Amino acid sequence: SWEGYCGPSSFQLRVAIVGGGIVGVAAALGLLRRNMTVRLYEQAGNFREIGAGVAFTTNAQTCMALLSPDILAAMKAVSTKNESPYYTYVDGYRRGPDQTDDDDDLSETLLYRLHAGTTGFDACHRAHFLDEMVKHIPDDVVQFRKRFDTYVYDEEREEYTLRFEDGSTATADVVVGCDGIKSRVRQILLGKDNPASYPSFAHQVAFRALVSMDRAVAALGRDKAHNQCMHTGPEAHLLNFPVAQHTMMNIVAFAPHPGEWPHRERMVAPATADEVRDAFAGWRPAVRAIAGLLVGEDDARTLDKWAIFDTYEHPAPTYAKGGACIAGDAAHATSPHHGAGAGMGIEDALALATALGLAAETIQGKGDEGPRKAKKKSVAVTAALAAYDAVRRERTQWLVRSSREVSRTYEWANPDCGTDPEKCLRDIEKRAHKIWHFDIDGMLADAKVEFAHFLSA
Ligand code: FAD
């Protein structure tokens, strides 16, 4: 019976998080800080991230601090700021009036600069950031080699039983799916026959590499290598930014991939140096030099191409049902053109932790609006997750749409901007400001209002 949960401080919500990526780990730290019992189930044998860059805007960093100061400290310990307060967008394709096609003419025409000031990105090596964060997770919170299969809800006991592929089970009051783009939790939550349970191919591939800063400076010059630079052009684009305290440069190059992605189960496939070179064959020497860094000397680098999948075609109609929900890429996988997918996942984690904190108080008959009547556990948890869905879905699904749209701006294919630098800058700025200048206090206040609304509904 639920009476047992009304006791003073003995009650702790039991939250099962599926997936130990950036969002699952951040959510775990935020929930632990709010005195919940957390179990994190990760299919891999350890925490692992890929060797690539990830950047976080100031608002994502504020959310980190509010979730748990340990998260922000972890990011700050390994992150790198742009040297300039501006992000630079150059014409990587056309020859300017003073330029030649000589391979050593690495100049590109400056199109526009986006002022980021102190609101812009801090970039880090993904694995370094995850390594720093997990130092703060107690050992008994994590279980590795647990590949989640399904959950069932027991109404009588008001709890979920999670089943894993190794046949083991676990129980919890709340299930949070942070299991990434191919989320199994999303399939269970929305139904296996629902197209929104699966991501779809954005007909684009990315080639990525981290290269040593020495090599980057030798190829591009100091200024470009140490600062974020977007090389725009027709049908493709290429971005570089510094990471790892300016000891490395992150490169990500996007090229079209017409037709379907042929590898059913995998989103990453081997690529050849020629594929990269062909994608940027007619481009300025500077872009070809960066493509050269991607493939490595004598084509020595092992190259992969990453299929860009997202939830653009079939957005999830809800992120929560009962006491189960999805967050991060599991809820709203996006193409990476705003560099904000993980940041949005951090915002999700903050909204979720806040809403579940309200639920925990309500179950115990506490709360800052004077003593509330203790509520049944499932009612409070359902209201909290409905509030989470209400404050997160619109913004995150906008990101998925806007990311596809802004990619067209980078590739001179946005009909509203074409190649007009002024119009392109306005378009990019408008979208960036929506991401950067997010009213976090407003979101948390809304979560509280929505929670009260769903609780009384
Ligand atoms: P994931 O990192 O995918 O983690 C999911 C975890 O769940 C994994 O550890 C997986 O092993 C585990 N898992 C999966 N299924 C199961 C299961 N059944 N049982 C148990 N465990 C399971 N975002 C930014 O904010 N800034 C950037 O600069 C940026 N750049 C990007 C560049 C590129 C090229 C790409 C592709 C993305 C970029 N993103 C960026 C987006 C960002 O990478 C993602 O939004 C973020 O990594 C998602 O984190 P996550 O924790 O939700 O999912």
What features would you highlight for this structure?
457 residues; FAD/NAD(P)-binding domain; 14 helices; 23% strand; binds flavin-adenine dinucleotide
What CATH calls the topology of the largest domain is FAD/NAD(P)-binding domain
Q: Count of DSSP helices? A: 14
What radius of gyration results from the CA coordinates? Answer: 23 Å
Task: Give a list of the ligands.
Answer: flavin-adenine dinucleotide
Helix content: 25-40%
Strand order of the largest sheet: 6-5-14-15-16-13-18-17
Number of domains: 2
Q: Report the structural category.
A: alpha+beta
Name the CATH architecture of the largest domain.
3-Layer(bba) Sandwich
User: What's the total number of strands?
Assistant: 20
The stretches of 5 or more residues where confidence is low (pLDDT under 50) are 1-8
Mean pLDDT: 92
Q: Largest beta sheet, briefly?
A: 8 strands, mixed
- Choose one word for the global shape: elongated
End-to-end Cα distance: 22 Å
Describe the fold and architecture:
With about 450 residues, the protein is an alpha+beta fold. It folds into two domains: about 290 residues, FAD/NAD(P)-binding domain, CATH 3.50.50.60; about 150 residues, D-Amino Acid Oxidase, Chain A, domain 2 (2-Layer Sandwich), CATH 3.30.9. It is about 40% helix and about 25% strand. It is built from 14 helices and 20 strands. The protein has an eight-stranded mixed sheet, sandwiched between helices. It has a six-stranded mixed sheet with strand order 8-2-1-12-20-19, sandwiched between helices. The chain has a three-stranded antiparallel sheet with strand order 3-7-4. It is elongated and about 75 Å long. The two termini are about 20 Å apart. The structure holds flavin-adenine dinucleotide.
